[in-house]
Amino acid sequence: MSKPRLWITRRLSDATLARAARDYDVVINHEDLPGTAEQLIAASADFDAILPCHSEHFSAGVVAQFSDRLKIVANHSVGVDHCDLPALKGHGIVVTNTPDVLSDATAELAMLLMLGAARNAVAGDRIVRSGAWDSWSPAFMVGKQVTDARVGIIGMGRVGRAFAAKARGFNMEIHYYNRSELRADQAKGAVYHDSVESLLGVADFLSLHCPATPETTNLMNTDRFALLPAGAVMVNTARGALVDEAALLNALAQGQISAAGLDCFQTEPGGNPAFAAHDNIFMLPHIGSATRKTRDAMGFRALDNLDAFFNGKTPGDLL
Ligand code: 8YV
Hints:
Blueprint: E1 5-8, H1 14-23, E2 25-28, H2 37-46, E3 49-51, H3 60-63, E4 72-74, H4 85-90, E5 94-96, H5 103-118, H6 121-129, E6 150-154, H7 158-168, E7 173-177, H8 184-187, E8 191-193, H9 196-200, E9 205-208, H10 222-225, E10 232-236, H11 245-253, E11 257-262, E12 281-283, H12 292-310
Parallel strand pairs: 1-2, 1-3, 3-4, 4-5, 6-7, 6-9, 7-8, 9-10, 10-11, 11-12
């Protein structure tokens, strides 16, 4: 039997590409540019499967132009806000994602952003690097202490819980909002809040770990920033759509929050040029899951889903 034909839209890890080449009739986008709508539509006629990243947008309008050949979209991401799931499913296309395997890497980056934002990483690095560090004072670059502080987590799924585990290492008092309360063995002492508003009132540090959906768009808006304790620090490693960026700048200007750590932006790639003027915004370019170990694990998880599908089984991460 001929191998299924697979399009890999981006430059995945070497181990992933080698395994894909062994098991599939694979075409890899070595240019490593985001797949365009035209490319996706053309691929739907030429391939049985696509292995995309969050950079390819399967909107309803694009999916409506798909041919019938494409059977499965096996995402190399946990987030699937780039996929119109009803449209894909309506077209008879199976969709999978890669949960679990990126939780620790993403939680690590959230911790880095929280610490860096709280402790003046941007300004500190700049002054040393530029040679402008010519004095010292006990009043110099005084930050906000993480150890023993209260942290609020919005979205206590796999990444939220991995972040909580790391926060426990700093003896933080953990509070969370989630659609439903966790079992005690998952909550591990974290305090449940049944509304975002209630959580924000105690969130001296706040970390966002929920998916981007129509309900969570601009989750952090002017009204919600106003509920945070003065001088709070906000971290976002989930999706840029969760934060109203104008409201964030306003909250910083008013001291409602003292710093932010962002790996995600409303506009990606690119970010928000208005943030660049603020040393108390510590920014990274959407690299939450970008470790060698996790990239291999994500690629292998996506291939596991493809293997299951083409062997007539239900993929483990069927959405
Ligand atoms: C990935 C992510 O880098 O998995 C996700 O949802 O946002 C990131 O961890 C990216 O999506 C890879 O496609």
